[in-house]
Amino acid sequence: xxxxxxxxxxxxxxxxxxxxxxxxxxxxxxxxxxxxxxxxxxxxxxxxxxxxxxxxxxxxxxxxxxxxxxxxxxxxxxxxxxxxxxxxxxxxxxxxxxxxxxxxxxxxxxxxxxxxxxxxxxxxxxxxxxxxxxxxxxxxxxxxxxxxxxxxxxxxxxxxxxxxxxxxxxxxxxxxxxxxxxxxxxxxxxxxxxxxxxxxxxxxxxxxx
Amino acid sequence: xxxxxxxxxxxxxxxxxxxxxxxxxxxxxxxxxxxxxxxxxxxxxxxxxxxxxxxxxxxxxxxxxxxxxxxxxxxxxxxxxxxxxxxxxxxxxxxxxxxxxxxxxxxxxxxxxxxxxxxxxxxxxxxxxxxxxxxxxxxxxxxxxxxxxxxxxxxxxxxxxxxxxxxxxxxxxxxxxxxxxxxxxxxxxxxxxxxxxxxxxxxxxxxxxxxxxxxxxxxxxxxxxxxxxxxxxxxxxxxxxxxxxxxxxxxxxxxxxxxxxxxxxxxxxxxxxxxxxxxxxxxxxxxxxxxxxxxxxxxxxxxxxxxxxxxxxxxxxxxxxxxxxxxxxxxxxxxxxxxxxxxxxxxxxxxxxxxxxxxxxxxxxxxxxxxxxxxxxxxxxxxxxxxxxxxxxxxxxxxxxxxxxxxxxxxxxxxxxxxxxxxxxxxxxxxxxxxxxxxxxxxxxxxxxxxxxxxxxxxxxxxxxxxxxxxxxxxxxxxxxxxxxxxxxxxxxxxxxxxxxxxxxxxxxxxxxxxxxxxxxxxxxxxxxxxxxxxxxxxxxxxxxxxxxxxxxxxxxxxxxxxxxxxxxxxxxxxxxxxxxxxxxxxxxxxxxxxxxxxxxxx
Lengths: 209, 603
What we know:
- The complex is a heterodimer of chains A (209) and B (603).
- In chain A, 56% of the residues lie in helices and 11% in strands.
- Chain A has two domains: 126 residues, Response regulator (Rossmann fold), CATH 3.40.50; 57 residues, Arc Repressor Mutant, subunit A.
- With 209 residues, chain A is α/β, with parallel strands linked by helices.
- Chain A is built from nine helices and five strands.
- With 603 residues, chain B is an alpha+beta fold.
- The two termini of chain B are 88 Å apart.
- The chains are: A alpha/beta (209), B alpha+beta (603).
């Protein structure tokens, strides 16, 4: 999982090119896995493994753009550096619109490629961290009781204890009790922190029934 | 009469001297002369006064008579070209026997003895001597000989008559008839005198003279006919000469020793020799030196199996001009058997012009093919750039990886060997693309080499690979193993393949279904090699299967519609053919059939 070392996945149908890129990246101390087709990559890919993808555009079978789309559908966060022999503007725009990390043309300079890869790996790490945070918040939220969740929503909406008590038809004392409980469960000490967390988890935006 | 006979005889002696083979003239000469001499003896006999003198003169008169009869026999034999030899021999030997008996028995063959001479008055009051005495019984030998003579002449005349020509009829009737009549009458008359039935002098000469006249007339006819024939021959020869001179080919008549005996004006033009130089020149002088020795052998082989035939249409045939220049020719040979030996009539055409035109056409085709090739490569520029880009990418990455490995501390030398190997290989790969490209772009004359068609296919597909990938065309190959080599120009055949494959891709462009292109090679039943490009496009309307090869027929928005036209002309120049068929399921197939290489090694 996130603690494993990130891998650079290289997909190109030309074995000579694959071998060259692999060596270059290895010389830069990167972990590399190579594939000669998009199908082969999809077969072996573990979504949870960190890394980035160096992808050729024109491939027999599934093309680079099609693979990008497929990963998107799977909810993958893997950043893609396109590396192509002849990228036209239309294709590169397409690729960038769908979140490509970079778009490089062959033959590529080592510094440029390695920089792009490091950037993509950083993006991947950030995305995975954000994902980890989200998961933690979601877990905390899941631990709340129905009442505590209702109170949380009121707090995020900026209501005072008194207003919340009136809204929920209960005593201010009871609200205070719930409030202390949920603060503890969410692992925060100040309200501002709670609000930020709840917002990131999308609690405030859920429409009330 | 004797004088006339002499004159006629001498004329024919002259004729015979000019034409030694014409024995009839010689025999007529001896015939006429002996007739004249015999006439003289006859005259002397009639004027003889003593019985002994008469007997002696008569005895000697048999010498010219014998010569006369022998001459008649052999004249008829040669002149009629007929008659039974045994009859001729019988008549001759009996006559020679009679001549011997003439001197051996009695006073002569006619009389046993001459007791007295009896003067007899002839018409006109001329008094001549007639012998009185016993007849010589041996005269029978001469008379039997005369019968054989008559039999021989009749037989020869009948044979001649049966030949059926009017000339044969006339000759048989006139010469044969007069001879038979004369010999019969004269012989009967002489026999009657000899046996004492008729008391008259033996006057034989007038009858013989008539025969001589008839023969002379007939021979004269021959002389006239010969003169007419000669005139006719001259006309014919002039006509023939005019024909030979006006023929647009060079004509040579070559004898069995290889000497030229006749040449026409065109031969002077073609070979640059004067006619006088050509005549009696060995025909090998007109053959390039390097081929001379083998030609003499060919000539002798031809003499053994002489048939009219044409040469130089298949293989290249060269002749040598006086100035040493070699010219391509086509030659026809016809044997001409003649009495003077077998001649060969050679007619030659200088095909320099034709070869030049063929060459110019080929050059134009090459040029057009080159233009089309350049255009094709222009279309493929993207694909070709990609084909170069891949190895360049690999080289750059490998080289920079090496730099980085060296910058490590400590430097990692262990990776260098394989990195360098890969760099070298990729450089070669890029070099091969450039080499192929340069070769395709170069404008050069068609060169034929033995080629493995599978190599040509694989090379072409390598060039176009990226383009196919870009157009989402899945290409597969089905290449037969151990195919015989074809003889061809690598660049041009590759151009054909590129064009045909690109056409197949174009045919599938607007189809969403699986775009699949198959390139197949195989040996055909006809001993050729076929490359088929099978697409899975919409197919070709059956009316257009041939039309697509016509110039300026195109279904594409861009392009001149010359691609397939040029492809077909290239394939046909290779002796092959290019055609299209529709597949049973979908799409079309372009077939390119090429003859296999029949030369040994490189040419």
